[in-house]
Amino acid sequence: MIQGKRILLVIAGGIAAYKCLELIRRLRERGASVRCVLTRAAQEFVTPLSVSTLSRERVFTDLFSLTDEHEIGHIRLARDCDLVVVAPATADLITKMALGIADDLASTVLLASDRPVLAAPAMNHVMWNAPATQANVATLAARGVALVGPGSGPLAEGETGIGRMAEPPEILAAIDRQLGGPGPLDGRRALVTSGPTYEPIDPVRYIANRSSGKQGHAIAVALARLGARVTLVSGPTRLADPPGVHCVHIESAVEMLRACEDALPVDVAVCAAAVADWRVAAVAAEKIKKSDDGAPPTLALATNPDILATLARRLDARPRLVVGFAAETENLIEHATAKRLRKGCDWILANDVSPETGTFGGDANAVHVIDGRGVESWPRLGKDEVADRLAARIAEALR
Ligand code: C5P
């Protein structure tokens, strides 16, 4: 529902900026208010006068304008809206968003905003396909920035390829989706574990594993996108905290269990973390010194709590749905089926993590969902798509 919503439209400097005039007109027709920020380069393509005439609002262009700051500070500008739309999202502005650069009003507003963001990229096809742009776009997508387009076709420079900004009707439809009615998980609470755990040996050393956290973080984003209030309990990863998700950072398995229990009650718990099976029984208070004869220390290990099994076997405040993962390298279905019963969870997502599959740390995953009724095999999908499918299946089950 666009009616009555406040849109902050950030227009960057690309030839597609002219399409924004049409977008503003249509948004106004549909009952939205539209406030616009123009970069310096955008003003080479559309004038602030035409933008303010169509939007019937004053246009913001300058970070260091006393009048602007007096009238509405840039922080308020960033937050006084229901959705931020970046169109055209140029390679330059996408890079600034990904890196958190704030060196003009548009980039500063984007960094300071806590609102959902929809970006409509537009650029030359070589620039779009450049590894740097693709990496930056992936970073934004992982943070929950929604994208519309780009499409393919003739580009302004006479070349053909992917890079054309989505047309205003497509952008409107994407805005509609972003602002849409209540999601199927509205009012539901979800808990997701993600990443590795670090098990300390002494104040400087630890035992860890290679989990990237990509799958768990993607699941948290997908559940939040369907309206759930999500707590993401994560071990150390290189991923940014997804916006709109409550993130709790922990290191060890014992800390992860405590944070999960603190997050209860929830409707669904998804345990995607690669929790260390063992911890060092007695963590040394001081850094362990090398012995003079070079003999290595012996570390006594203790078994870590199984977070998935603990949540699934709770007598009080058991989540209605408890979902685990089973990473296996052989007899996948058989082992995962036994694991589901052993741990007491409702569903288990089995995936083959043999090194040749590239699943661990990679971007794709082929999973089999095992529940009380049988096995449902999904094709090899991006981890984001696995997350979306899982979130949709969870929404269905909690209906
Ligand atoms: O036993 P295994 O490590 O194969 O089980 C994998 C599943 O159990 C995953 O969902 C993982 O997040 C969860 N797990 C856990 N706590 C542990 C070990 C595994 O939550 N200590």
Quick overview of this protein structure:
This protein has 15 helices and 21 strands. The chain is of the alpha/beta class.
The CATH superfamily of the largest domain is: CoaB-like
> Which sheet architecture does the biggest sheet show?
8 strands, mixed
Which class of the largest domain in CATH terms? Alpha Beta
**Number of domains as seen in the coordinates:** 2
SS-based class = alpha/beta
Number of strands: 21
Helices, by number, come to 15
Q: Which stretches of 5+ consecutive residues score pLDDT under 50? A: none
What is the annotated CATH architecture of the largest domain?
3-Layer(aba) Sandwich
Alpha carbon gap, first and last residue: 23 Å
Classify the fold: give the CATH topology of the largest domain.
Answer: Rossmann fold
In percent terms, what proportion of residues is strand? 15-25%
Q: Determine Rg (CA atoms, Å).
A: 24 Å
Shape: elongated
- Bound ligand species: cytidine-5'-monophosphate
Helix content: 25-40%
Mean pLDDT: 92
Task: Give a quick set of tags describing it.
399 residues, alpha/beta, Rossmann fold, 34% helix, elongated, binds cytidine-5'-monophosphate
Overall description:
By secondary structure, the chain is of the alpha/beta class. It has 2 domains: 6-179, Rossmann fold; 189-397, CoaB-like (Rossmann fold, 3-Layer(aba) Sandwich). Helices cover 34% and strands 23% of the residues. It has 15 helices and 21 strands. It has helices spanning 19-29, 42-45, 48-55, 66-71, 74-79, 91-99, 105-112, 125-129, 131-142, 168-179, 214-225, 253-263, 307-312, 332-343, 383-397; strands at residues 6-11, 33-38, 83-89, 117-121, 146-147, 151-154, 160-164, 189-194, 199-200, 206-207, 229-234, 246-249, 268-271, 278-280, 301-303, 321-328, 347-352, 364-365, 367-371, 374-377, 381-382. Strands 12-11-8-13-16-17-19-20 form an 8-stranded mixed β-sheet, with helices on both faces. Strands 2-1-3-4-5 form a 5-stranded parallel β-sheet, sandwiched between helices. It has a two-stranded antiparallel ribbon with strand order 6-7. Helix 1 links the parallel strand 1 and strand 2 (33-38). The longest helix is centred in the last third of the chain and has 15 residues, at 383-397. The two termini are 23 Å apart. The structure holds cytidine-5'-monophosphate.
